[in-house]
Amino acid sequence: MKPILCLDFDGVCHSYTSGWKGAAVIPDPPVPGMEEFLVAAINYFDVAIYSSRSGQEGGIQAMKDWFDQYTITDIRTMLNFPTEKPPAMVGIDDRVLTFNGIWPNLNELVNFKPWNLK
Length: 118
What we know:
The chain has three helices and three strands; from the N terminus they run βαβαβα. It is α/β, with parallel strands linked by helices. The chain has one domain (4-117).
């Protein structure tokens, strides 16, 4: 059994340049390098794609359809799309900080921007 790698969908897989349009509406292309990363990652991890879309009507199917549209491999069939955040060994998300035992400065949190808005 492989450890779980949980990837956030919006801002990590999906470039999310248009912002939120609804759970079933995903208008933007992938973040460059996504497919190559996933093809390699599935050799080491059980890859779970999770999003705030995951628990909303049409969200998971929209993400699956998006992968079918934007990938040339059959990678989508090797990914999991849970309805709840899985107990992952590690996750990649554009809107989180790694907790290192020291509480962050509140000004840093208030002024936080994901990578694609810097």
